[in-house]
TrEMBL record:
It comes from Weeksella virosa (strain ATCC 43766 / DSM 16922 / JCM 21250 / CCUG 30538 / CDC 9751 / IAM 14551 / NBRC 16016 / NCTC 11634 / CL345/78). This is Permease. Its main location: membrane. It is found in: Membrane. The chain crosses the membrane at residues 27-46, 61-83, 95-114, 120-142, 149-171, 177-195, 207-226.
Amino acid sequence: MENQNQVQNLLVAQANQADRSTFYKNTYGHVAGGVLVFVIIESLMLRSETLVNFMLSLTQGYLWLALLAGFMGVTWVAQKMAYGSASKSQQYVGYLIYIIAEALLFVPLLYIALAYGGQYVIKQAAVVTGGLFVGLSVIVFLTKTDFSVLKGALTIGFFLAIGLIIAGMLFGFDLGLWFSVGMCALAGGAILYNTHQLKHEFGTQQYVAAALSLFASLMLLFWYILRVFMSRD
């Protein structure tokens, strides 16, 4: 049993090629599965006029801040379940909770996007997001660059972004196109950092937690790329 636990807790960087390949396959398979579940849940949510109207009502001022605070709280719980639990079932529950929370948060944006440009603008944003995600991931795997150095900059960037979002809500100013572009860059940096983490900070059995980490960065990138597309005249 002790030897089995050692194998289960082995860092990906210390594992053999077969175990690393299995870990990466499981991780990215779960990311793809998370996207599929998100699409299904989001489609169902957008069909509920009551839910759409309720979520739209939360997009103004203090209510939007309360919604974001609630989302961050749910994210913390989901991550604790996915990262800290030895039970695979609890890890999956944490991942599912996070996907549902993301789907709820996206309801107002996707509803407005559908009214703005129909499914075409959403598909455009999805294709660009997917392409960037794949490209950034390939960079990490094909180079020996140490992307862990991004951690400090990402932390500062996210706190600055949260401060600007709060200020915008409180004082009623639009953050504009360039904020969305900056957030796309920040999300791209998060993908680089999280992909680098796969090789150095996760164990071979932590593919659910690794998938949640990548999924979160992917959805952040999609959110702001969609906002960029919606900002075009």
